[in-house]
């Protein structure tokens, strides 16, 4: 891993950056400036969603960056109330218009819910076949959701974006995704700032002259996890990206893996029913 332009190949051959910027709970001029700063630093992957209400600002920053569209990877997601075949197609057109992009690189189902995601997935398959999106994926899907989806579709999700950090390793889910060639991606990779309790990280961070956050992000990259830390502060956006000049040892990876306590900062997918 050499830098922010490093990519992995998804199961349909599309290259996705290993590292990107998350934009949850960022809006208005704030998110636009954050995306501008990230792109200037060298980020090439930006993650948004219709729920976030910031697709317009993200799209404006992307288009004004001067960076060739082929070099960028833009993700957005369909929200729960828009699930279902026809409603998803309509929601996608709203997102595409807000972003001001002809093609979205990755379009995802934001949450599984109960059963609507199967019809939603059919809509995503159509968008993929039409060339409106380059890859399709899911977010917050558990193993049983993925198995159910794969029983009714030959299109395996390219990505599964889930909450993943040292206190929520999601090992079984990650192993299932690896087995089925689904790229795991971490949202809330830094526990929404809740790093103070992770005292186990301090010796490792001190050894490399890095912050605990940088150690966590490096651990994720070395564990084949795509990660999208969110920040609206240019200095923090830069700091998060400065993780390509050191490498964790296998025993240090094991220390972070062993910190799992099954603690979530967000909702369990099986509890968000609609």
- What is the percent of helical residues? 25-40%
* Biggest sheet character: 8 strands, parallel
The CATH homologous superfamily name equals NADP-dependent oxidoreductase domain
Number of helices: 10
Structural class by helix and strand composition: alpha/beta
CATH architecture: Alpha-Beta Barrel
- Return the string of H and E elements: EEEHEHEHEHEHEHEHHEHH
> How many runs of DSSP E, i.e. beta strands?
10
The order of strands across the largest sheet is: 3-4-5-6-7-8-9-10
Mean pLDDT equals 97
Q: Count the domains.
A: 1
Which CATH class is shown?
A: Alpha Beta
Q: Give the uncertain stretches in residue-range form.
A: none
List descriptors.
274 residues; alpha/beta; TIM Barrel; eight-stranded parallel beta sheet; 39% helix; globular; Glyoxal reductase; NADP; Aldo/ket_reductase_CS
Describe the structure.
This protein has one domain (7-264): TIM Barrel (Alpha-Beta Barrel). The protein is 39% helix and 15% strand. The protein contains 10 helices and 10 strands. The strands form 2 sheets. An 8-stranded parallel beta sheet has the order 3-4-5-6-7-8-9-10. Helix 3 crosses helix 4. It is globular and about 55 Å long. The mean pLDDT is 97.
């Amino acid at each position: 891993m050499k830098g922010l332009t490093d990519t992995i190949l998804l199961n349909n051959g599309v290259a996705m950056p290993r590292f990107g910027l998350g934009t949850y709970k960022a809006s208005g001029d704030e998110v636009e400036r954050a995306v501008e700063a990230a792109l200037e630093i060298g980020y090439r992957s930006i993650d948004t969603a219709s729920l976030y209400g910031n697709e317009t600002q993200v799209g404006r920053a992307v288009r004004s960056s001067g960076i060739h569209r082929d070099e960028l990877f833009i993700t957005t997601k369909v929200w729960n109330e828009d699930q279902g075949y026809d409603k998803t197609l309509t929601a996608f057109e709203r997102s595409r218009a807000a972003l001001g992009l002809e093609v979205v690189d990755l379009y995802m189902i934001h949450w599984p819910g109960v059963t609507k995601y199967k019809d939603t997935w059919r809509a995503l398959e159509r968008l993929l076949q039409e060339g409106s999106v380059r890859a399709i994926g899911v977010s917050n899907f558990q193993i049983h959701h993925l198995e159910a989806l794969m029983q009714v579709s030959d299109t395996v999700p390219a990505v599964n974006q889930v909450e993943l950090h040292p206190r929520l390793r999601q090992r079984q889910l990650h192993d299932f995704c690896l087995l089925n060639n689904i790229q795991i991606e971490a949202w809330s990779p830094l526990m929404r700032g809740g790093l103070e309790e992770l005292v186990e990280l301090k010796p490792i961070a001190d050894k490399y002259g890095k912050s605990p956050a940088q150690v966590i992000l490096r651990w994720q990259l070395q564990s084949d996890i795509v990660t999208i830390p969110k920040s609206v502060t240019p200095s923090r956006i830069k700091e998060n990206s400065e993780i390509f000049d050191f490498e964790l040892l296998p025993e240090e990876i094991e220390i972070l893996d062993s910190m799992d306590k099954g603690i979530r900062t967000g909702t369990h997918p099986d509890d968000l029913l609609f």
